[in-house]
Amino acid sequence: MYVESKRDLFSKKKEIINMSLVINRMKNRVCMQITVVVVFTVSVIHVITFLPLSKELAENDDSKGKITHIGFLRVHKCGSATMSNIIFRFGLHNNLTFAIPKTGGYITNTDSLLPVRPTGHYDILIGHSIYSRKLYQYSFGTDSVNIAFVRDPVQRMISAAYFYRDVWPQAYLLRVPKSNFIENLVRLPHVYDRAPFSYTRNAMGRDFGFSSSISINDTDKINQHLDMLKKDFKLVLVQERFDESLVLMKRTLNWDIEDILYVKINANKHKVESLSSDLIKKLQETCFLDVILYETFSKIFDEKVKDEGPEFYREVEWFQNVLQSVSEFCNAEQVRNIVKIDKSEWNEPFHITQENCSDMKMGALTYLPMLRNRHKKMNN
């Protein structure tokens, strides 16, 4: 009896121990499930709470670097030669790849571009072209910053008329009598400037991709195309406010003052013209697309500058002081080797050499052959 009772006791203890283990396992399992739920819940809360912030921080981190994917639309006689020089120099200094035409200076379609190697990509599209989403998205996808200039339609037309008569002669302008040249061209477009698009008629409209079939009364079609341009172009700058435009571009692209220095090139001196009010009205009717583009994007430009605050103009003033020093150095009769630019709240100290001056004076016709040779070596 004693032995059996002892065995019974031992069995009971064993059952108690086993039961305790089972209970502990169940507790652990429940605790683990609770822990998983808590961890999952906390993770979800963390994701919901912090993912937008993390994304914002990531975007801010990216914004600290210079933007290098740039589509520059060269709009005729809107300061494009000087701006092209700035972009050429920036691209070379940062070892970027240019989307440039195989021959000549015009990009007509994607097939006209020098190809990149299969693992390569374009960084900068530059060259005369008519804007199309297909061309720009083929070159960059959708992550480029597209830039262009507009200019007062009256001044643009006058500048273009003299340039394409005297410097880059066009047959239709050579037929206009030199006496009262601009007045004849404006007052008698049905005689001397009949095409819907020409170098002196709606040239900005053509470069920005408007259809030549659009008339002044096609308000819906005009607004539809304008809406597309507003979405596609992050910066449309104003030629008459060139220095302000460059400072705004510098801030938008996170460039340095050194990146936007320039010496004016391809500027054609011509007779100063003053048009009467009725001639201006006539020109505005003939060049209605240019007028709409200028009014639309000048207003947007004003809004962007206003958003920068009053400190913006202090930087513009400093930039113009730097430009003056650079211009005097580059154009001085007595050659110096270097000019130093002091540090400011907008730039670190840097210097300009005579080689930099030569680069700033180079035109597209000089750059393009050099860039083609460079492109072929980079992409073979």
Structural class: alpha/beta
Figure out the total of helices.
Answer: 15
Distance between the termini: 100 Å
Number of strands: 8
- CATH class category label of the largest domain: Alpha Beta
Q: Mean pLDDT, nearest integer?
A: 84
What is the name of the CATH topology of the largest domain? Rossmann fold
Overall number of domains: 2
Range of helix content: 55-70%
The run of helices and strands is HEHEEEHEHHHHHHEHHHHEEHH
* Known CATH architecture of the largest domain: 3-Layer(aba) Sandwich
pLDDT < 50 stretches: 1-63
The CATH superfamily name of the largest domain is P-loop containing nucleotide triphosphate hydrolases
Instruction: Summarize the main sheet.
Output: 6 strands, parallel
Shape: globular
Residue share in β-strands: 5-15%
What radius of gyration results from the CA coordinates? Answer: 33 Å
List strands and helices in order, with pairings.
Layout: H1 2-63, E1 70-73, H2 80-93, E2 98-99, E3 106-107, E4 124-129, H3 133-140, E5 145-150, H4 153-166, H5 171-174, H6 181-187, H7 189-192, H8 203-207, H9 219-232, E6 233-238, H10 242-253, H11 277-286, H12 288-308, H13 311-330, E7 338-341, E8 350-353, H14 354-360, H15 364-379
Parallel strand pairs: 1-4, 1-5, 2-4, 3-4, 5-6
Antiparallel strand pairs: 7-8
Helix pairs in contact: 10-13
